[in-house]
Amino acid sequence: MPEVHNPQLGREHSYPYEHREEERDWHWGMVINTNRCINCNTCSFACKSTWTSGEGEEYMWWMNVETEPYGGYPMGWDMRLLDDLGPDETIFEAAEDGEQVRGYVAAKEEWEYPALGDDQSHGEYPAGDVVESDPENEQYHDMWQFYLPRLCNHCKNPACLAACPRQAIYKREEDGIVLLDQERCRGYRRCVKSCPYHKPMYNPETGISEKPVGCFPRIEDGNVPRCVSSCIGKTRLHGNINRGPDAGHPNDVSSAADGRSPINYLVKSDEKVALPLYPQFGTRPQVFYMPPYHVPPEFLTQMFTPNVDEKRNDWPGSTYEESVKIVQQRARDPSHHVLGILQLFGATTRLIETYRVKENRVKGWDRKGKKVVDMPIEEPMEVREGEQWTNQ
Ligand code: SF4
Ligand code: F3S
Q: Does residue 178 have its Cβ closer than 6 Å to ligand 1?
């Protein structure tokens, strides 16, 4: 079985499919700031009404929002799989005889409650009137919950693609979006079993499977996906995750820009502030999350890091838990540069290829080099001179 280097885990592992991931100039990617998500599910309904409104698609939520730690669609999807993996074992290495990938098929009833655990918090409600934070550690709350938007990650090592015996799933050359060819599909459902994020879904009416499409027609027109443009909390930024500081690029993008894409900065710069969801599965997911800063880091360490003892140099702390604390702190109190990029979230429906933060302004350009955003980072505020009005 071919070996691949997985930079999210910092090591090689088997992956049952040959591919040329690192050479791609442009790759679909997304950053979600969980601190801004209010569980309104506008994204979920925007996705559903765009892509899955037909017969047999009733239960399909390609985009859903879960309340952590108790939510999950299908029920308990993450814990069930994590329990089956050995320490430091990806779903490819844990595959059973005759299979390419370790996975499981969720039962019908596990798909019946998309909002299970909604708004349910972790921790005991205290006896007094006020919920107080832990006096020993005031940054984190004793009682907590947070909202986790979930969608297809358009993985760089897609499990769905590797598992399909019909080669009905492919990764597009131009943007890395993972698509399922419904003409080729024969309904074997290995993709449904293999995706650790449970995003390919079987349509009992047609007898074939379907999976999220990354809003590819919108991407082709230079627009962001509908879950991004519809988000009222401005939680998301979408773009080219592969456009790093040294990326050569075939398109003529404005020379005024900083060079890399804004999401590349948030995920891969020294100021790493967004993390992948369960990188230990090994699929190299390309949706990255700014972690909630009020949640105890030990929970987030399990969810957003490789979750092994061994530590890598490109993480900011001396342990993964320490790293998560640092990333949480950066999300709580962002640098001026990150604050500038945060203004780009939800600022335009156009896809921002590159950007520049300079003094109090942030600007963004599309793939053709056309400026699509130009805005202040901090709004000017005027304080009226003179006596303040009082109620006395
Ligand atoms: Fe495939 Fe699942 Fe990865 Fe999407 S999240 S590319 S469906 S393995
Ligand atoms: Fe392949 Fe999944 Fe169809 S495994 S044949 S794409 S149901």
A: yes
β-strands 178-180, 169-171: how paired? antiparallel
**CA–centroid distance, residue 283 to ligand 1 (Å):** 8
| pLDDT beyond 50 at 250 | no
Place of tokens 């655990």: 117
- Please state the atom number of ligand 1 nearest to the C-alpha of residue 158: 8
Query: What is the 152 CA–ligand 1 centroid distance (Å)?
Result: 5
> Is the residue at 118 inside a domain?
no
311, part of any domain:
yes
Average pLDDT score over the chain: 92
Annotate 90-119 with b (16+ C-beta within 10 A) or e (fewer): bbbbbbeeeebbbbbebeeebbeebbbbbe
What spacing in Å lies between the alpha carbon of 15 and ligand 1's midpoint? 14
Write the pLDDT tens digit of every residue in 76-95: 999 999 999 998 999 999 99
Answer whether residue 65 is part of any domain.
Answer: no
User: Would 331 be classed as within a structural domain?
Assistant: yes
* Cis before 74 (ω within 30): yes
Q: For the chain, what is the domain count?
A: 1
